[in-house]
Amino acid sequence: MKKLLNQSLTYYSAFALIMLLLTAPAFYWISQKLHLDDVNEAILLRKEEFLLDGKWNNLTSGDILSWNEFNRDIKILSDTVRVERGKIIQQIFFDELADEWEPYRVLYEPVRLHNEPYLLMIRINLIESVDLMQATALIFTFLLFILLVGFVLITRIVSSKLWKPFYSSISLIDSFEIGKKALPDFNQTSTIEFEQLNRALVKLISQNIKALEREKEFTQNASHELQTPVAIIQSKLDLLLQSPGLTEGQAVILQQLYEATSRLFRINKNLLLLAKIENRQFSNKQNVNVLEIIRDVLPYFEEQAEEKSLIIHTDQLTDTFVDANKGLTEILINNLLMNAVRYNICKGSITLTLAHDVFVIENTGNPQPLDADSIFRRFYGSVAHPQGAGLGLAIVKKIADLHHWKAHYAHQNGKHVFSIIF
Amino acid sequence: MKILIVEDEKHLAESMYLYLTQESYLCEVATNFREAQDKINAYSYDCILLDLMLPGGDGMSLLEELKGSDRHDGVIIISARDALDDKIKGLRLGADDYLAKPFHLPELGARVYSLIRRKSFGNSNLLRINEMEIDFLAKTLEVHSQEVPLTKTEYEVLVFLISNRNRVISKSVLAEHLSGDMADMMDNHSFVYAHLKNLKRKLSDAGCREYIKTVYGMGYRLEV
User: Fold this and answer.
1) Between chains, do B104 and A239 touch, taking CB under 8 Å as contact?
2) Residue of B nearest to A230 (CA)
3) In chain A, whose CA is at the least distance from the CA of B171?
4) pLDDT (tens digit, 9 = 90+) per residue, B132-162?
5) What is the pTM of this model?
6) Chain A contact present for B53, CB below 8 A
7) What is the DSSP annotation of A224-266?
8) What was the pLDDT predicted at A60?
């Protein structure tokens, strides 16, 4: 993953490089052409000057020798040189001073002096054009370097200034947790796009918060409304049981109705509890000794454990004080213990450990490990175990979350291990 | 014994009425705030079963009114609110007991019975049924004037059955009575069976007649 700005920087740099590579030869070619034209023009101009003057007609052959001696670039040669005439051509000459061959533009113009044919040679050194080429390359390299440095600097500035609202919005959303924190306060920005983004985010988040609130409200209201019909059904069953002359078959049906009703009641009660925890209706906290709670509730489960011949190991319990809601902590311990008893096997065992701010409950049971991700979800496993309301562990998780504890499940050595890290 | 049932849900009020009337209590029903207020002002009751959420007003203010006027009517709050605050506030205001909806009628019967016994018999709260004598304060049982040692649970089972005498009490109702809030945690009700077996054995060992009958498929009944 690369940063957006670095990605655009890569494209800019590639474009700059390609442009420079393409334009450098073109620039070189054009400037060379201009230079050659210039040189050609200068040669023609010198020829005009030389011929127009007319003084050269007075030159004697001895004069021509000394002329050629002192003029480097305009010479009068005898017409014995075999070269193309009347046209500017490219030629190299040896330069004794620099001790090297150098390119020249040369014009050989046939002239007549004292009715003798001569050749007027005018030449201009082109050595500057090589310098030009080198200078061009140098300038272009330098330009490329400046451009790249500029791009990087601008990207830095842009990222720290222009994109600042964007990054601040992202970090706000990142730390936002629905149902836990208020709507994030996005910074004001003068960039239209970011303002739009922030507005869209605020809208999206508020809609989510509203939906969550409606759901919580609905659960609570629905549970409340369900209580009365359940109460009526239960009371009518109690009355029905008193009717004289109930047959055995009817009695069995009645018992099943009783069981279904109490299960309905339990589910309803637990949903209501979940909604209440989510709505943070348990705010009063106190210093709670977890060990005391375990000791209080254990007798109920020991009776149940006896039925399954379970052994409960309680020798690893030490005083542990937490700042918590006492009622909820009780429910959490109860649900975990009930789970360990209910889903245990005959002659199984339960091991409780409470020390160093960790409560661990380990029990034998189904040898298959449970799905650690979904085990704390509502109604997970309620199909396989219809006697449970399917909400016990969801409540455990909610209570743990409320107190900022960690609820954790693992399958170790064939045992199911639930731990609460206070 | 006069009981006022203040409950806006007619079907529930009717169930309560039917169950308690069979118990030879004299029952009256009020289904809204006004009606309840009128009845409370006009008569005195041994026990008032008070629903907190009423059309026309809050049941809590009826309780305040009642306790403010130096009346001695027993009050059991019956509420679907299931909020600890309500329970605490109600009991502080002078309610004698609190029962959360939904409840079983035998549970209501037991609460009413216990309240009325407390109200009417004060310090010496003894009940005699033939050879059985129960001391509700000391929580002891004597058969033929010999103390029968009962566990706490066995004693509770006996009192519950006596409070609902001649009624069929299902195992699940007994289980819920015995375990209270922990009823959710109970998987099966065979522990009820174990306690009843022990109780019946202890009673017959002490030479008590077989008052507690097992009603097959339904539960238990204490017949006197």
Assistant:
1) no
2) B102
3) A255
4) 888 888 888 988 888 889 888 899 999 999 9
5) 0.65
6) no
7) HHHHHHHHHHHHHHHHHHT-TT--HHHHHHHHHHHHHHHHHHH
8) 80
